[in-house]
């Protein structure tokens, strides 16, 4: 099999263009329900090659009047729409800022890939010969017009489905809420699984306790299991043939518990809140501990009663996916931001939309997506982090722009303000943590140590310690005053990590795309895992921990 020479020109040109784009823009990041991944030169070059193959395929389809090309585009478009329906909304961020990727974009990308596959097929397809020298050229095919019309109807259907979904969410929130609750009720097996695990663990403990009254000691093991594990009790009953079956069952049960992550015994799941139809990306709790706010990729912000778990209100109408939420210290204002590059403000008591205060001479608050929002303790400052590589400070009461903090060379993922309101800490995709003086608006220290994106930062209640989470799978503890690295916690975390410190300064919670892990802040001792995921936040009294859950759920954990 040989590749046609003219196709090589198209494919090589596309690959060269992709490499040039990557060299100009630099590393990019793709963020979605699966977490976040970095995109270097190799993927962009490959994408350019696919685009070149698609261009070649388009020329060949026109030249040969081949309806197969339209079929390839249609299949690719449907596949792209299917990927969107499975994963949900995504965002592409880089030095140019950030852009959201919706169903239409995914369908178009799938169509390009389909056409690229067709182009590669044409490049490798041998040219048929009929006779000694006469090359075959197909006649115009009557089904060409039908194929074009079919693809047009397919594309219209995809766009119509996206428009209908948006309309249903914005015009009929009651119906949407009931539909989401029914959908998640059918999938709500996670809590049942956790209950079953707890039941099995109690049964194993009960059997162990019943054996503790004997004066003999004997390990429970089999010839096959001895190679992998052994479970020993300090006391066990004397050998009894009638108990052999029970011992084998107990041994197998112990093996299962041993292989699974050890759950944290001091926390239990109090409630699971189903309400969002896509991944929960941000959580905030009011200072009185009564109200919980959640933002999601479904373009909504919801308010919950933290104590009862009851849904109080849902704000619809966000243009894009929500990535950040915050409640002001006085508990009267809610702010949210995301891929629409705007900070939206609501009055919590009346649910009224407050006046939008934007960046001077702009229709937006940032030129990139908004990744984090936080208030200073006295509410005089609202800080926003963005994919445009900047931190911007706004008046916490009026929303008026005050100042930009520049220094990071990539996406700023997280910001935190110290309890005294004098220091701001930021974490960025440039792998650095920067400490800023809010009186001089200058960075005082640059901390390095993470090998990938720094995705979350948190400051301890006394203002002397700081924790940072990273896509490199580690959590690091720092001295905020000196910038000294105190300890690195290896938790085998995956994806984008969030960290939170309890109000009493005793505990640290870290969340990734799969689990929530708890640590003792001062000793770094690992305390166990919870069946939740990022994001994580403690209640003001430290008795509750709120985390994300699977399939758009929120989990509320209570300390025993």
Notes on the structure:
- It is built from 8 helices and 31 strands.
- A hairpin with a 5-residue loop joins strand 27 and strand 28.
- By secondary structure, the chain is of the alpha+beta class.
- The model is unreliable at 130-137, 167-189 and 212-260 (pLDDT under 50).
- The relative contact order is 0.08.
- The strands form 8 sheets. Strands 2-1-3-4 form a 4-stranded antiparallel beta sheet. Strands 5-31-30-29 form a 4-stranded antiparallel beta sheet. Strands 6-7-8-9 form a 4-stranded antiparallel beta sheet, with no helix packed on it.
Roughly how many Å is the radius of gyration? Answer: 28 Å
* Structural classification: alpha+beta
The biggest beta sheet is recorded as: 4 strands, antiparallel
User: What is the averaged pLDDT score?
Assistant: 79
**Net shape:** globular
**Total E-strand runs:** 31
